[in-house]
Design goal:
Strand content of chain B: 15-25%
Strand order of the largest sheet of chain B: 2-1-5-4-3-6
Distance between the termini of chain B: 54 Å
Number of helices of chain A: 17
Strand content of chain A: 25-35%
Helix content of chain B: 25-40%
Number of strands of chain B: 21
Shape of chain B: globular
Distance between the termini of chain A: 53 Å
Largest sheet of chain A: 9 strands, mixed
Structural class of chain A: alpha+beta
Largest sheet of chain B: 6 strands, antiparallel
Structural class of chain B: alpha+beta
Number of domains of chain B: 2
Oligomer: heterodimer
Largest interface: A-B, 68 and 95 residues
Radius of gyration of chain B: 22 Å
Chain lengths: 685, 526
């Protein structure tokens, strides 16, 4: 490596493997993979970095000395919530309103399952302590904060040995004074405890969302803080002097301090990398509108990028926790490569939601699994090569897959191949229906989008799914791990903020500007240490009268000072509503509920370099089932050269991905090492 | 014969269409009762009036939709593309007046193929009292605007004159119009998706698949029922009163299980009463179907096929099937909940592990008054302090999750939002500890609330509900949940318990309402 070369490193810790990717200032990419160490993920990270150094011919110290920044996606917060291993949390809350988080607004999932016990709340009632204080809806004080009652509550929490305390008072979103005073009292009494207040975590109206998010933040705060501090120490000892950035659920990155303060905001840190990659692609001009399609073993994650920006949502569930921080709107469909096919009690073929997981895995893994899965079907149809799955690391057992499929198909009168074809078709249809509902729910028409396909199982289904949705363009990266880490390295520092406008009402440009300016200042303050460019984006959440769902209307292209601003913003809303729901009510004045400001610190873009030119790889042939059996060419992914075109029927395969081209599908390999697929049949009316 | 994979694909597709329609409703409706409390339902019904797919919203609506379609087709035997129909009349396919239903037909090769149906509870439907519930009514004409099946369109265009006529008869015409636009939008969205599905698969494949989907659900339901012990079982549930002096109104279910068939005979139920707890015919059918669906498996499709093993016998003139003209507005909660409870009690002998403790009863209060901060008049429907859910063989009941007719599907709004939008102050809103019935598994707790009324000048309140005498039923030795108790504390020191069926209660500003809502029933001996 030359003198001036610096390195950026992306680290993506998954359930099984820790992927480490280095991109140098020339755009050269080097990857390494280490086993994830669940007890302390930082061990696996260091092991991965050491391996990466070996590949580059560098000692760990030298590697880190040449490293300009590290971006990290972590599943620590998610795992803590899913496995119930969060901190022991205490809650201080307004007297008389102790049960907000457990009442769940009166809702219970699964309407027709009346034999289902409620899950335990994140904080049991005994650790939810009332404090005498009360604000009114306008933020004025009805009952002053009572020091005696506060002291008694904090004493009780001390006795219960809590590691974290959430402070959640009614109406604190518009007046944080009581929460701040209570948090200070906790901090003074319980030194070392992680203390978090609802007015700091999510300053917006609606107590259930705000309290639940704050409680989740308290549950994961100590865990995330402990992990990130350990990692920081290890990296420092190993010679790293640059910044460590953490991937957040909203798709931007933040400093370690900020990631600890809003620890619940790292819940989607892992899957955010793929979406960040889609945003980076949009920025590079590939397509402004993308849907990510990440099909793994048990489920498929879908997210939207619109006009180059990721779509954010105001709330999602992680295990029993509800986190209402702005986060990437990732929809999970319960079907993946390991999904088990079965005949329901109604006698219909079904796929999922049960999954064979990694152990025992699909029948063809030969590890004791007896159930036919999507992967078994793909094997029997010839789409997967039994000898080269996962680069030949796992040989697939065709006999076992066939036996499982034969047994499954018997009551339906189908042989193994017909059953496999049925499973393949059914899982595709489920993806299509799921994608359509998910996109409509978000108010978009999928046809004008491009699909970004990654995850081990995606390539075999993506062309059919795209054709059914009439999506003409699909992008497939060579290696998903690289994609995620590459995405992390191409995102920005971001602070996402939102404020409710007191009552919500007619558009008031003056009030809107003040609120936006305050948020912008807060965002700039949080990024004060950052030297680079700052970009600010503004939008408004709007609705008609008494509707409860708002539509986000960006208004960066409107001049807030212009006399016609309110009318222009209203018209932008009418147009969005009409596009989404078939009608607009132009005789009604829309209501402006929330203002949103996103402040981004722009990190330098990474260079990209043409994939190394290799000789075209040897093309083999394989018999696959597409309506009927036929022999199709199989191209090794690594053997494709830039601008090479592959026409279906064909298969392109690498160690981690296999892509099925149906007749008429056409793929072009581009200079970055991506496959761009034109889908046959997508353009028909 | 269509292949089984296509059948499965289409079953998913039809459910996805219903789900998509529901999403559109949630996002576009105006009224708090629809967009926050989700009091609406979606169904896809075929040209024979058979429910083919539905979205899980309010269970008590869904078994009723096919009856609405049948009543509609009786009046309009022919339809054209672009048509939109409406009805709410309980004596012509409706459940009760507030539930307005919109229908849009889909055609295949020029012939009627499907109906996409949207039923939504209106925040007001005219009549003598605001908000649709009139406990004083002794005839349906005092309950609100009656809409027998009507065609709302002419040549595919909405008739503005008809919409104006409807809007002129309700108290919040702006909200009504907004909600109606959303309902029609959602039904048309369904029609659009059905048309795409028909184009993709063809009418013949779709029709054959519908038959297979219904047959499959029937097979699933029968496979469950056949495991129930054969026999004749009896159960009853008791309403407090009808609000006009008739007390302990009793629903009696005699349920016969024979092989994979279940017959529910309600003929021994009490005669119809003067007040609005009578049920319409469609609502009675729906309540029986709801009880049956609760006792099947959650993954059993809820369509016409699943209900084929179920047979209903009832007699006109009883409280479960009132003669035309009787008031029925309360029936989607009461006596629906008692019909469900009587059936579950009866079948607890046949399938004890499936029978669950009773869910709470509804006791609603609506306040009307003036907000001094804005100078505007308002109506507020109380959904807070929900009653508890019933316990089951699987564990304790859900606290504050509601009643049989909603089972955790109605959301109460944010206290902060309620205080910001209405002159109300929630001094307390918490669990009412110990209100769930004891048992091997305990019923879910109800709520306790102290609500201060801060109107500019006096407010008035109406109540509508039941369950201050009879709590949610304990099952198989579990104890009943505590009944409701609502007490009004006036600033002049006068304290009085509210009855469940009152109109025009004077509520001076500064009054405090103390709500203790009922708990769910326990399951098994404590």
């Amino acid at each position: 490596m030359g003198q001036a070369v610096t390195i950026s490193i992306g680290i993506d810790v998954g359930g099984t493997f820790t992927d480490v990717v280095a991109v140098d200032s020339d755009g050269a990419v080097t990857t390494a993979k280490a086993a994830t160490t669940p007890a302390d993920q930082s061990e696996g990270v260091i092991a991965g970095l050491r391996l990466l150094g070996e590949r580059l011919g560098l000692e760990l110290g030298a590697l880190l000395a040449a490293t300009e920044r590290i971006v990290h996606g972590t599943t620590v917060a998610t795992n803590a919530l899913l496995e119930g291993k969060g901190a022991r949390v205490g809650l201080l809350t307004t007297e008389g309103h102790r049960d907000v988080i457990e009442m769940r607004e009166g809702l219970k999932p699964e309407r027709y399952d009346l034999r289902m016990a409620p899950p335990p709340p994140l904080v049991p009632r005994a650790r939810r302590l009332p404090v005498r204080e009360r604000l009114r809806a306008d933020g004025s004080v009805e009952t002053p904060l009572d020091p005696t009652s506060l002291a008694a509550a904090v004493d009780a929490l001390a006795e219960q040995n809590v590691d974290a305390v959430a402070v959640c008072f009614l109406h604190a979103w518009c007046n944080p004074a009581h929460e701040r005073a209570a948090a200070a009292a906790v901090q003074a009494r319980l030194q070392g405890a992680f203390v978090t207040a609802s007015s700091d975590v999510l300053p917006q109206i609606k107590e259930f969302e705000r309290f639940s998010t704050t409680v989740a933040n308290a549950a994961v705060g100590p865990v995330v803080a402990g992990y990130l501090r350990r990692l920081q120490d290890r990296l420092l000892q190993a010679g790293f002097g640059g910044p460590l950035f953490i991937m957040l659920s909203h798709g931007g990155v933040a400093s370690v301090d900020e990631a600890v303060r809003l620890a619940a905001g790292t819940a989607l840190s892992g899957p955010a990398g793929g979406v960040a990659a889609a945003v980076a692609l949009a920025r590079q001009g590939t397509s402004q509108d993308l849907i990510t399609f990440d099909m793994g073993g048990t489920s498929t994650d879908i997210a939207l990028v619109q006009a180059g920006q990721p779509v954010l949502t105001g709330g999602r569930g992680v295990g029993e926790a509800r986190i209402a921080l702005p986060s990437l709107d990732i929809v999970t469909l319960g079907a993946g490569g390991g999904s088990i096919a079965h005949v329901s009690r109604a006698g219909l073929l079904q796929v999922g939601p049960q999954s064979a997981g990694a152990d025992p895995g699909p029948a063809c893994y030969g590890a004791g699994g007896r159930s036919a899965t999507v992967t078994d079907a793909n094997l029997i149809l010839g789409y997967l090569d039994p000898a080269s799955f996962l680069g030949g690391r796992r040989r697939l057992d065709t006999m076992a897959a066939e036996a499982a499929l034969t047994a499954l198909g018997r009551p339906l009168g189908l042989d193994a191949v017909a059953t496999a074809a049925g499973i393949h078709r059914l899982v595709n249809a489920r993806m299509v229906d799921g994608l359509r509902v998910a996109t409509v729910r978000r108010g978009v028409d999928p046809r004008r989008f491009a699909l970004l396909s990654f995850g081990g199982a995606a390539g075999l289904h993506i062309a059919s799914v795209a054709a059914a949705l009439r999506v003409a363009r699909v992008l497939v990266p060579l290696q998903a791990a690289v994609l995620s880490a590459w995405g992390m390295l191409n995102t920005d520092l971001r602070v996402e903020m939102m404020r409710s406008l007191a009552q919500g009402g007619a558009i008031d440009p003056q009030a809107l500007r003040i609120v936006c300016d305050v948020m912008e200042q807060e965002g700039r303050d949080r990024l004060r240490w950052f030297q680079g460019d700052i970009q600010v984006r503004r939008s408004a959440d709007m609705r008609y009268g008494e509707q409860v769902s708002e539509i986000a209307v960006p208004f960066d292209d409107l001049d807030m000072g212009a006399p016609g601003f309110a009318a222009a913003l209203a018209e932008a809303f009418h147009r969005r509503h009409e596009a989404l729901f078939t009608y607009a009510l132009r005789d009604r004045a829309p209501v402006l509920v929330n203002a949103r400001v996103s402040v981004a610190g722009v990190l330098p873009a990474l260079a990209t370099r043409a994939a190394p030119l290799e000789r075209p790889g040897a093309v083999l042939h394989r018999r696959v089932h597409l309506e009927s059996w036929q022999s199709v060419p199989v191209h090794p992914f690594a053997g494709l050269v830039p601008e090479q075109v592959v026409t279906g029927p064909a298969i392109v395969e690498s160690d981690t991905t296999t892509v099925l081209f149906r007749p008429g599908d056409r793929g072009r390999f581009d200079a970055r090492g991506w496959l761009e697929l034109e889908v046959a049949g997508a353009a028909m009316a | 014969m269509t292949d089984p994979v296509t059948v499965a694909v289409l079953q998913n597709r039809l459910s996805a269409i219903a789900e998509e329609m529901g999403e559109a409703m949630l996002r576009t409706t105006y009224s708090q009762i629809l967009n926050s409390s989700r009091d609406f339902s979606i169904g896809l019904v075929d040209s024979h009036g058979r429910l083919v797919a539905q979205a899980d919203h309010i269970p008590v609506h869904v078994g009723a939709l096919p009856w609405a379609v049948l009543a509609l087709m009786e009046v309009f035997p022919t339809q054209s593309p672009g048509d939109v129909f409406l009805l709410n009349d309980p004596y012509h396919g409706g459940s009760h007046l507030p539930d307005l239903t919109a229908f849009v037909p889909s055609f295949a090769e020029g012939r009627l193929a499907f109906w996409s149906v949207v039923r939504a509870h209106q925040s007001d439907i005219g009549g003598a009292t605001m908000g649709g519930y009139n406990p004083g009514a002794t005839e349906i004409w005092q309950e609100g605007l009656r809409v027998p099946p009507i065609r709302l369109t002419e040549g595919g265009m909405i008739r503005d004159d008809l919409v104006a006529m409807l809007a002129a008869n309700v108290r919040h015409p702006q909200d009504f119009r907004g909600d109606l636009a959303a309902m029609i939008g959602a039904a048309r969205l369904g029609e659009r998706r059905l048309a795409q599905t028909l184009a993709e698969f063809g009418a013949k494949v779709l029709q054959e698949s519908v038959e297979a989907i219904l047959d499959a659900a029937e097979q699933h339901a029968r496979a469950i029922v056949v495991t129930w012990m054969d026999g004749a079982y009896e159960g009853e549930a008791v309403l407090d009163d009808d609000g006009h002096g008739i007390e302990n109104v009793t629903i009696r279910a005699r349920v016969t299980v024979s092989g994979s068939d279940v017959t529910v005979d309600l003929t021994q139920s009490d005669p119809q009463v003067q007040g609005f707890v009578n049920s319409s015919y469609a609502n009675m059918q729906s309540a029986v179907a709801m009880a049956f669906a609760f006792l099947l498996d959650p993954d059993c499709a809820r369509n016409a096929g699943a209900f084929r093993p179920l047979h209903v016998v009832a007699r006109e003139g009883t409280v479960v099937w009132a003669r035309e003209g009787a008031p029925v507005t309360m029936c989607t909660s009461h006596c629906s909940n008692e019909i469900v409870e009587a059936i579950v009690v009866a079948l607890s002998g046949a399938c004890p592990d499936r029978a669950m403790g009773g869910w709470g009863r509804r006791f609603r209060v609506a306040f009307e008054g003036r907000d001094g901060r804005t100078g505007r008049r308002f109506i507020w429907h109380m959904f807070h302090a929900r009653p508890g859910g019933g316990a089951s063989s699987a564990g304790d009941g859900w606290p504050t999750a509601g009643e049989w007719h909603s089972v955790g599907g109605l959301k109460f709004g944010s206290v902060e939002v309620a205080e910001a939008r209405f002159p109300l102050f929630f001094e307390q809103h918490e669990f009412r500890l110990g209100s769930g019935g004891a048992g091997r598994h305990c019923g879910g707790d109800g709520g306790e609330m102290w609500l201060r009324i801060e109107t500019d000048g006096p407010a008035t309140a109406n109540t509508a509900g039941d369950g201050v005498r009879h709590g949610a039923r304990g099952m198989l030795g579990g104890q009943d949940g505590a009944p409701h108790c609502y007490v009004l504390h006036r600033p002049d020191g006068v304290v009085r318990e509210l009855r469940t069926k009152e109109v025009g209660i004077a509520v001076p500003s500064g009054s405090r309402l103390h709500v203790l809502s009922g708990g769910g029933g326990g399951w098994g001996r404590p």
